[in-house]
User: What shape does this take?
Amino acid sequence: MTAPMEASNKIINIAVVGYGYWGPNLVRNFSELNTARVHTVVDLNPKLLELVNKRYPATKTTTDFQEMLRDPEIDAVAIATPVNTHFSLAMAALKAGKHVWLEKPMAETSLQARSLVEEAEKRGLILHVDHTFIYTGAVQKIKSLIDSGELGKVLYFDSIRVNLGLFQRDVNVISDLGVHDFSILDYLFNEHPIAVSASGINHFPGTPENLAYITLFYESGLIAHANVSWLAPVKVRQILIGGSDKMITYDDLEPSEKLKIYDKGVSFTDDPKKIHEMRVGYRTGDMWAPKLDGSEALRVEGEHFVDCILTGKTPITDGRLGMRVVEVIEAATSSMRGRGETVHLPRQGSSK
Amino acid sequence: MTAPMEASNKIINIAVVGYGYWGPNLVRNFSELNTARVHTVVDLNPKLLELVNKRYPATKTTTDFQEMLRDPEIDAVAIATPVNTHFSLAMAALKAGKHVWLEKPMAETSLQARSLVEEAEKRGLILHVDHTFIYTGAVQKIKSLIDSGELGKVLYFDSIRVNLGLFQRDVNVISDLGVHDFSILDYLFNEHPIAVSASGINHFPGTPENLAYITLFYESGLIAHANVSWLAPVKVRQILIGGSDKMITYDDLEPSEKLKIYDKGVSFTDDPKKIHEMRVGYRTGDMWAPKLDGSEALRVEGEHFVDCILTGKTPITDGRLGMRVVEVIEAATSSMRGRGETVHLPRQGSSK
Amino acid sequence: MTAPMEASNKIINIAVVGYGYWGPNLVRNFSELNTARVHTVVDLNPKLLELVNKRYPATKTTTDFQEMLRDPEIDAVAIATPVNTHFSLAMAALKAGKHVWLEKPMAETSLQARSLVEEAEKRGLILHVDHTFIYTGAVQKIKSLIDSGELGKVLYFDSIRVNLGLFQRDVNVISDLGVHDFSILDYLFNEHPIAVSASGINHFPGTPENLAYITLFYESGLIAHANVSWLAPVKVRQILIGGSDKMITYDDLEPSEKLKIYDKGVSFTDDPKKIHEMRVGYRTGDMWAPKLDGSEALRVEGEHFVDCILTGKTPITDGRLGMRVVEVIEAATSSMRGRGETVHLPRQGSSK
Amino acid sequence: MTAPMEASNKIINIAVVGYGYWGPNLVRNFSELNTARVHTVVDLNPKLLELVNKRYPATKTTTDFQEMLRDPEIDAVAIATPVNTHFSLAMAALKAGKHVWLEKPMAETSLQARSLVEEAEKRGLILHVDHTFIYTGAVQKIKSLIDSGELGKVLYFDSIRVNLGLFQRDVNVISDLGVHDFSILDYLFNEHPIAVSASGINHFPGTPENLAYITLFYESGLIAHANVSWLAPVKVRQILIGGSDKMITYDDLEPSEKLKIYDKGVSFTDDPKKIHEMRVGYRTGDMWAPKLDGSEALRVEGEHFVDCILTGKTPITDGRLGMRVVEVIEAATSSMRGRGETVHLPRQGSSK
Assistant: This one.
């Protein structure tokens, strides 16, 4: 819990660091909020800053990160740079007393992630990790279906997240694509995985793994699997969630019916007379595709971030969630390099 | 290589053992061949035999397997009984000098499978395992695309084979569904996996595992994965095969365009000047869905079996292929129970 | 209303005439009913009758239609011969006192259809026309959604029914494919079209029209359209039904979710202040795919036919429905040959 | 043929009139060209002009269309206003010596369209109508497949273009959606339709027709059909084109495989011995989805417009094409109001 900003009609000044692939989306998004403005954009490349000058003449630009940090007008720093710079930049921003919005994954190691979480908590600053998917209408709807008990006991989560490219040079495909599933899992279930087994391969020597299969085991009996690849001929973004009462398919590429809820399940008989027969019964019924909130997730997330700064609330995707996601990436990568050997994760009931 | 039958216009007399789920398909299929006839049907259930009498008045029926074996008119025995009876029934048939058609998986253990293979080879009898998928137009087309080099180097094989039910009581989902992928892999590639890592779960105590994820590792760098489940809200039968030059999607539920070949791939530069840039390039081009041979696979397979008996040829899906498939099931099940621990498979270069 | 048969446990003896494309389905289907049996099969081709003898040894066969009519054991005659023989065969059967099941379309002209209807009514015999689609779970569900008012006022019906082949020699594509839509429309709505405009073409001289577009106009404001073709590269069987409250898509090729009901519609404002603005509002909501009755339609229809014979009830797809369908085919064909000129249909409120 | 501009490196100054729905796309698009710039934006609504000032500070804005016309720096005027203003604005622009880019449909009546064409030709000015679809990779590919003879003789064109809304107040659905098909047809085939039959309805009194079915007849035997609606629960943008050798499906909503070419067709035998049998044979083969040029159509079209101004070339979608499209809209609307009565179109061989 952080200390709220005093005035309710304060405009939050944000500095965006990194104007490469994702940075421009952050600048556009923060610019459109009523409660925030983009005060400064930082990038090492002056050509990218020229683009900012043209499109946003009222926004300052600089190549000097430290100079930006010294500006007392700036309330928050949004960091959209390569992963290997996240820790040092975010730590410096926190130490300069700035709230931080950090791209995912939040750090290269869980140790780094933990340091950032502790620094932010010590200083009463907001540390927000940009797991955008959590703020989509689809994930919000799934969360409410699970929490209301409509699915029954959730038995499995199965995700396919594949396409051709883009090969990353500095992070493997687990860190690039699996990160989405790990954050969604953390948000949906009040449970941290207890073990992970992963396999994967780098087909091209000297590059990170471009294809991986990750299984997460949970104490409740839930099992989760992610199939992630940069080397598929077709793009797939599909999640199955099976409950004892109902089951969900979530196809993120479907324009209008992303979520389908199947009134399907299995039931068991304990009738001893049937002990030698099939004891599993099937139930199939209607399918239902709810209308989803179509708001842009990044917009919802941006408003939430600013609201947390203004009111002192803890972000939904706070540093602790981000840290647990990094722990899973770390464990999965370790298991993958051991060809599937089980890697155990620490219990974290208290920290959720 | 077995000794060919003398006369070319001989009609092969087949006994079908087991008239439950699959047996009726075998009887119908063998009945329609010009070179074979169903001489006898064996089942322990007299009611099922009544059905045979009505539909096929010229076919003998009996509940006595041994009696059938003693009939010198019978050339071959097709066994479609539960897996746990395969070994004893097939061994008895071989010892009685009959050629054998055996449902998949051919045995519960690889030791049993090996005994059957050795018995058949010793006696010069045909031992055919019914891996029907191999005889489909789709798998035949994939095989020819791989063998002609059109895909380039094959990098991965990724299969999803899920639906709701039928829960089996005596075998797990790897044995029930993964078996298809293992046989297709064995047929497509001249390579036996060297290690396997699998995870899975039985959501309902006292039943076999109903959901599993299996990764197979090959010495050439090929990686294969199968996602199999009896607990999915939708039926999926989809395989992706990625080559360095082209990639395939194979959707077995698609009525008319099961196979799509994508002129897509990645290329790498070794240009030292680009060492700090992205070194992976993408190539995308046309997609092509070849017309497939639409013959019923079971019909093609039946003719092949009879042809092997008549000519002494080795079946495509002979006992050795069936044995290698059982080895993979065994290793995958073992790994699954160890939560993904790597299980190594014996080298079998010589036996392929 | 016809006179009911006396005994409730009577078995109805049916003669099936025509054992070509559809006849075998009728024989199989009537054979499986508990309340009926296939007494005789008539066909001019002795080779086809040999097939019957093999498959159904208890069924009589003959090439002599008149001989069959003289057999007093036969209660009902099912006619599955080319359309140009329907009238004479059905009339002879009715005059011989037999109930009649007639394939669709029931006759070549509406005059012929009317004669058959009047003959059956005069004699108190069942005249059933085989519009199988009416007995599917999908059409039954649509009917109940319309009748319950759930769709609101139905505004349009739009059907696409195209594929490659089979080119017919004796009937055009309206008679072959449009017939399904016309019977579904007659069943769903308590209204006969008042006018029709159709266009179409025979691309190959000397053959019937192979592609046609038909619009039906109704007094209530409903408009219906059917796009039918034997010359499409893909098979499509899709119907849209738009209501003021909800809308339906019905895809008959979809294996599991044939029917989707969209909570979508438009609303209008009469607010005079908005007279210069858009006065149409949109409403979009959930989509819902109800589980359908999966019974085989032909089985349901067969039971209904026999039940009508036994109880004297009027079949759902009686001769009057069949006659109205022929009237629409006739009018549509006439309009098509006049390149879309409006053809008016007689009012038939009283006869429904 | 118009007189080319002198200097090849001249920058064309464009005024965009109308900054409502489509105008902003034109401004963005022309701004990105190297050979043109947006000199002025005209709109009656000062609030919309403020938006322009913010986004494009170097662009002039005015509410006075006449004032803009008097500016000698302006070479060309792009008109994106309601259809009922097209004629007067475009005529004024031509009379002021400006080249004109006009949104579709180019005018309310074919008489108006003809006046504009004649005025432009008299003055040697470019009159370009914005039929954007013509410039897509998909339509360009279809054109080349037809022109190369790969489809064989084209037999039919069948388009479905439906969705929910937007209801227009001033134009009917033929003018709003059918216009796309009519322009594509004009571009693909060297033939003007000779007759049209259309049906349609306005479900809501006082509004234009919201659903229509249009059939176009061509002298060559080609038949074309468009199904257009603002009242469908799902969005469909699908065209089938059937040739005697190959057939095409074009699904504009498909992200990656918009065009599929089927090696399917029919063949006829004239063998007199087969006169009583089926004389139509079917051929089915591979399907092929070519990679399409992914350039933004509006960008390609903008460059083409500027190129025509600079070189004096005639635009692909010139006023004559636009006029023929208006003729078809006019004839179809007239037929629709006569419930399908055939409306004949003038021969226009000379003008193509």
Chain B touches chain A through 53 residues (CB under 8 Å). The first strand of chain B starts at residue 12 and ends at 17. The two ends of chain B are 14 Å apart (CA to CA).
